Input
Amino acid sequence: MKDEWVNMRLVYGRALVELGRTHPDVVVLSADVSNSDHSYMFEEAFPDRFFNVGIAEQCLVDVAVGFASSGKIPLANTFSFLFATRALEMVRTHLCYGRANVKLMGAYSGLSDSFDGPTHHSITDIAIMRSLPNMTIVVPSDPVSLNKLLLQVVEWPGPVFVRLTRNEAPVLFEEDHYPHIGGAVVLRQGTDLTLVGMGMMLDRCLKAAKALSKDGIEARVIEMHIIKPLDTLCILAAARETGAIVTVEEHSVIGGLGAAVAEAVTENCPVPVRRVGIVDRFTETGPYHDLLDHYGMSVAEILRAAREALSMKKKIPHP
Amino acid sequence: MHHYPEELIKELAAKAQQFRIQVLKMIYDSQSGHLGGALSCAEIITCLYFQHMKVDPSRPDWPERDRLLFSKGHACAMLYTALSHKGFFPIEELMTFRKFRSRLQGHPEPAKTPGVEVVAGPLGHGIAIGTGMALAGRIPASQKPSAMSAPTAMASAYRVYVLLGDGEINAGVIWEGAMAAAKFRLGNLTAVLDYNGIQQTGATADVMPTEPIADKWASFGWHVQEIHGHNVLEILTALDRADEVHARPSMIIARTTKGKGVSFMEYDNRWHGMVPSEAQYHQALRELEEGLS
Output
């Protein structure tokens, strides 16, 4: 891993423009936040294919449904929590039940809009979206992953919720990395336990793995960029081969990555699973990384969960 | 302006009445469905599918077809009846309405029923989805061949129609869509408001007053016409006029009667979703058949 942090909104804006060039059917829709999420870059390049519907998220999703039904590939843009809450009925009825080929580009996910506070933090979006049949959930974790996955999102048949971050993200992958929707990525090999992370949590997982290694514990680290459908083969292999799992997510521990992993593991290969994330509460305003630390997503918290999982693993016979 | 011969007007009016009879039979047979709002939109739907709209039942996905968004989805017994008589699927299938394993779901589902454009049921979606469809129609279809869009077609060759209930315009997203359609100057979008004055629990004037309804739509930037919604000639003429409006979406406020054609159902909100008893069914059938002559 390089020690290089990149502005993910710029990466997204540039990726949109590239998509505009390669995919003439792509249209970009916005609920008047294009200078926040950087979709304005697409607007500048393709003004005839960019539509601002105003501060009206339900309308945003429905207009996208209309585009999709006429063969376009609409990328709707607003904040994650607004897709998951205000526009949810549109998402359920037309994207999921009606299978409208709409891509929801969820900006400012997790705590990344940190100074706007809990009203703008998106900590339940994955739980809500994951409960809907036919929904696909993609969480890019670095600039390379975002670029490569966005292309696949556009070509993926049916609705996709893409969870984007507002802030800078560390570069995890080399340019020749090619993730595909459906397959988790093993970032670090190990056999003592597994850390499963998504998005901005990968950097912290890798730091935790390094610290554990100093104590002679070798942790496998999995980048789960697709929450639904979950790569259960990769998760179950980790359960079998390492016997203990810690999930790390910038989200409530209810219904998110940890829940998805725990469901798969409990039913198929029960081993200890500890979930690191926000423990069923709202957050507060503050600096991003301070909030992550304070609300349960610090490296220390990952280490604590890892030690708990390891000690439980010893008490429970390995399957 | 088109001239519509008297015979055509009579033929469409008779067809609408036959559709009412069909809808009554379907809902009575399945003991489930929404009669009042289906009976009120009979002439509107008949005029759209059997005279005004450009559709081809042999090609439900034809990119250049006109689209009807049946936004008041609960009244879909009337939509299914019109689609089957138009040839989108066998008429015999109508009697499977709302039954287990049927293609005719309780509310419209395009993946199951040929000719249905969008999922409807939860109310209020029609204008905003129609806005997206109408916008897509203005963009030249992609040069890149794909299964979903014809490579050479100019999609602007179609018009988008939305059938709204008057209860459903209580929903905020209707007005979000109304603003967006006006902003984007969608001359290829026409909405028809089935203004029957009754919603589930009472009169619209009591539940959520919508007047002055014409002024509301006009102030949102729409071209507005008000017509008698059971008069075939008025419907056809208004649809023609709406086609001629440029750079503005069109609203046709069609004054109708909920439960139209059945004396004891008219103006009574209980018939929004109630199923008639055997005696009521026979009386309703008799009255509707008398209305044919």
Summary: Strands of chain B lie at 67-70, 160-165, 189-195, 198-199, 202-203, 223-228, 250-255. Confidence is low (pLDDT under 50) at residues 142-155 of chain B. Chain B touches chain A through 38 residues (CB under 8 Å). The two ends of chain B are 29 Å apart (CA to CA).
